[in-house]
Amino acid sequence: MYMLKKNGQVVFGVVVSLLLLVFIAFITSAKLPLQTIYIIFLIAPLVFIITFLNTDVALIILIFSMLLSPELKIAEIPQRVVVMRVDDILLIVVFFSWLAKMAINKRLGLLRRTPINLLIIAYISVCLLSTGIGIFVGHIQPSKSFFYILKYAEYFMLYFLVINNIRNKKQIKTFMTAFFIVCGITCTYAMVTLGKFERATAPFEGICGEPNTLGAYLILLIAMCIGFILYSPLSTWRFSSGALACLTVITFLFTLSRGSYLGFVFMYLAIIVLNKRKRLVLIGMLILAIFILPVILPSRVTGRITETFVPGKVYRPLGRRIVVDESTSARIESWSTVFEKWKKRPILGYGVTGVGFLDTQYPRVLGEVGVVGFFIFVWLMVTIFRHGLYVFNNTEDDWARGLTLGFLAGFVGLLIHAFSASTFIIVRIMEPFWFFAAIVMVLPRVVKMKSPEREMTIDAT
Predict the structure, then answer these.
(1) Looking at the structure, do residues 100 and 47 belong to the same domain, yes or no?
(2) CA 78: distance to chain centroid?
(3) Contact at 8 Å (CB) between 217 and 67?
(4) Which terminus of the chain, N or C, has fewer Cβ atoms within 10 Å?
(5) Of 89, 109, 129, which residue constitutes the final position of a domain?
(6) Is residue 151 part of a domain?
(7) 378 and 426 share one domain
(8) Is residue 99 domain-shared with residue 153, that is, in the same domain?
């Protein structure tokens, strides 16, 4: 056993060294702007040292950088400029530092087991395999797919980083406080700059902004607030969550994101269905909102919703005639185009970016990684939800139950949002999502449960 652990540390040391060499080679060989290189080499050593000394501080820095970090242009590909955010750099550096820390400190062990570890590895493997085939047969260019696969890997890096570093409930509360502070800053910025950008958007998103991205992020945070309002035994958490919920809802409305509005509706319905506490109050608020909101909502919001059904293109699903605007019809047409392409390569698809730019999640997954990858993706989503539901129904800690309810409801909202956007590959949505997913996965280790968790073990893999 000792030799196995010792060999494991050696292997991790070698892996860390190789990864660092690849990262340095990429930085030096890529035609990055001089400003970007300066930022990388100024920030990276400092963050590496901070992570090595105190990983919790590094994770808090990551939380603040998720929504409050600028973009750095690194490349251009057809239809899109490839950008790297400061939080991308921070996450990679923190992950490398954490691996080095594990390699040196034998007591830290290797990766903790969770129900989705193998599914994550399987999904990344399919992405690599299908993309490799796509490059070999000439469907895609390596430069196009590299950055997107790197993004996918980053989310999973964050997940593994968090599950291995959470030890107690106090840590989780600290992280959630940081998330709430960042959300408050983001919403304040969005409202202050509303006249300038016309639609609410997060900091450092350029002139046009990404209101659809902000909308999905706020769905997740609003759900968290509602969960704590319903279940937290501490008045400070209930009050702060209520105050933040008011600010986030107002900001959310001014994103004018129809996909986010639809996701919000399903998020709220999920809270009613999953939760028994104050269910009648929640239903009453929903009924009241149906009658009052059309009257009190700003005309910009109601106009944005009604735009969906202005004369455009006619569809007849199940024999019913539906007229939608150009934006909605473009998404529907993209589904049809991907399905036609997918029929030619149904098993493994065309590889990451192989079906071109597609602003909707599910056909994108199907087109890129085929039936195999789509099945693993769905299995991954189902497993995350099932585990969250297990924690919600079996934890005896009300604060943890509120957190889990918020995550589950927000997750439902994101699944609906993904019909109108590539939700599960967008950095500013996925970094908070995978951080919360990691917290929910390890909750049975740090809070009291009604029954033992069968799917997880304390032993390190």
Answers:
(1) yes
(2) 25
(3) yes
(4) N
(5) 109
(6) yes
(7) yes
(8) no
3 in any annotated domain = yes
Domain assignment present for residue 17? The answer is: yes
Distance in angstroms (rounded) separating the CA atoms of residues 409 and 398: 16
The domain total for the chain is 2
The pLDDT, as a whole number, for residue 325 is: 55
Q: For residues 222 and 438, give the distance between their C-alpha atoms in angstroms, rounded to a whole number.
A: 19
Read off the pTM.
Answer: 0.86
DSSP 254-289: TT--HHHHHHHHHHHHHHHHH--TTHHHHHHHHHHH
d(CA 202, CA 381): 27
CA 298, chain centre distance (Å): 29
Domain boundaries, position 77: 1-109
Residue 457: its pLDDT value, please? 40
Cβ–Cβ < 8 Å for 337, 357: no
Alpha carbon 342 to chain centroid, angstroms: 26
